[in-house]
Each structure stands twice: as C-alpha cells, then as structure tokens.
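Annex B. Sample input.
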Amino acid sequence: MTSRSEGPPESSLEVFSCPSDYAPSYFFTRYSGAFLAPIFRESLAALGRSKGIDAIQLWGWTFDNLSEKIDINRDVNQISRYAQDHRQGHIMCSSTRVSEVYKSSYLRVLEALHASGKINRSQLFEFSAKICPVDLSLWNIGFSQCPDWWPSTRSRAGGVNAVEAWDDTAVLASKEDSGARLFYAAGVFAEGDESSLQKSAFRLTPFAYKVVGGKIPEAAKVEKLLRVASWSVDPEAKSALSILNAPLSDWSADQQRGFRIGDLLVLPLAARVQTTCINCWQCARELLSPVLPSAYLIGEGEVECDENSWRYLEDGMALFTGRDWLHGPIDRIKDSGFIQHGQFAFADRNWLEGLLAENECKLAFLQEHIYLVRKDEHSEPETSHFFAYLGLDRLIS
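Annex B, continued. Sample output.
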C-alpha cells in the first residue's frame, strides 16, 4: 500500500486529471442510481458539497475511463440485458459487470479524496463500507409474521379510509403485552389486494415532554427534529460491519439531545440504528432501520439479538424488544418502498414510566400517516404526509 509520504497512488492522479468542464456520459448519469442503490450517488454528492468538490463529476470521469479500458459496452438502448432476466424481470440487488465498474470507480474517487487530504481515514471507511451488502448482525435476525393486531385494509373496500386509519393507529399507543407497552411502530397497513392503487403507511414515534406555555408547535416540526436521532459506531471500529454486536461503549448518540420548540420541551425516546453497510440484500430493513431506546433511556445495560428480535437488557432483564415483520418475497422494490413490511417494539412498562416520573416528564407519540395514490396502474404515484400528536397533554407543567 502506498504511503502518503510516497505520493498519491496512480489511480488518484487519474481521478484528478478530470477536466473542469467534463460532462459524464449519458449512460453514467442515467444509471448510476440504478446499477447501485441510490444512496451511493446521494452520499457521494453530499460529501462533495461539504468539501466544495464536484464528486459526481469525478465519479463519472473515473467510470467512463475505466469502462473504456476494460471495453464495457454502454448501450442505453439495450439496458435490459445488463440486469434483467427474461423470465423474472429485474433481479433486485443483481451485480453485473457494469455494477462492479460503478463500485470500483466509486472507491477510486474515495481513495483519491483521502490521498489528497480532502477526507479523513474515518470518512474513507464510512463511505467505503457501503459497498458491503449487509450488516452481519442484522443478517442474523429473521422476520416475524405480521401481528394480528396490526392495522389492516382488508376489511375496507376501495382502500384506506383516512379517518378510520387515524383511529386504528391511535389504538396502538395503548397496546400492551405481558407487562410491556408498545413503544414504537412503523410500516404499511397490511392489505390483501396487492394491485390496489392506494397504499398507506404509518409511524408512531414516542417522545417525552413538558409543556411550559401556550405555544404548541405543529406536529410536523417536532417530527422533523425527532427523526434524526440515531445510534452509530465509529467506522474504524472492528464492529463497524456488525453494529448490534458492538458494546454500548463503542456507540455514539447522534442528534439525541432534548430540544425546546415553542413552549414544548422534548426528549427523544427512540433512535434508529445507523448501519455502516448498505444492506442491499435486506432492503426491507434498510427502509425501516432498527430502532432502539435513546440515550435518555439506555444505561449500563447491553444490546443483543437472536433469530427474530433485538433487545436492550439490564441485569439480564429485557426492557426493550424490537421485531420486523415481512409478508411474502421481495422480487423487486415497488411503490417507493411500500412493500408489505413493518417494525414494532415493546418496552417494559414499569421501566419506562419510572424514568419518565423521575424526570417529571410525560409520554406522547408523534403520529404520521403516509398515503401513496395512483390514478391508474401505469401512472406515477403521488405521496402525501400528515402528522398529529397522540396523547399530548397541553396543560402547563
């Protein structure tokens, strides 16, 4: 491996030989978000913006040159032959020769940015790890069946009635099971008609709060601040590719601090697990990242997982248990992620209520509904989001 003192590797010099006015090929521009998961392009673009570099241009230049060197035929008129089977249609997560050139050129750009001091070693590892197809710890967790209490559209002719849907998800906030109460839930409404032109999904996000005045902000503003709460592990750590196997001492609480908005004091109670890997072979879990209690709730315990759940334990007692459910095989990604999939978690009631009482906080949920509607089976869907508070007491503390 070439050291920094010996100068940048040859591939880095090739990346930075890109002319300032270079326009990547039409093939690269059109399909860089198709042969690889879109997050590759999105993350590289965001990295470039933060560094004042056109990273996508560098990627396109590198891809085009590498394709010519190994004689890759890039024909937009025959794109189906690259990643399609005439019997099964598009093979999700297929890796073709073109896909590998996209990956290689992506890694060469990252290597060049690191060799030139534009990004540090940790960032190099973080973005490079997206090439890995799955987080090893998540791979060990299977999917459950859809619970019988999950909101459903089966009994509703013509799709979801919005009023009934709000009521159905509101009921979940008081759901209990063996001394535990529902802590978090997200996913699609279970449905029997796969050809429906209307799809719907929901999310219930818990938060602790105090009301200190009469100015209560819109629910959508609070949701925007709650959804960024996450857990992560240093990309250079040995456990970076298997986050749930990492000890809590290696975890970082990101964007989990309490905040005030209007006259509402809020503490996040749930935080998503931000994996380093792309998880392209578990796309359902990538759509709904596993959720764990926030730093406000987690103490000196540990996280573990088994064949169908992930848990937070203290003194051997499971205080939080999360599960995913998935119905049917996933042959392709359809309807902007509206596959038959959901996630739910239960928390020990006494543990949760005890911590809230100690800090003189109350529990509420942020209720989100998502509707995807098409005029016909060939039209592009229109998506709408709606937000509301659930269980929020507006009395001043």
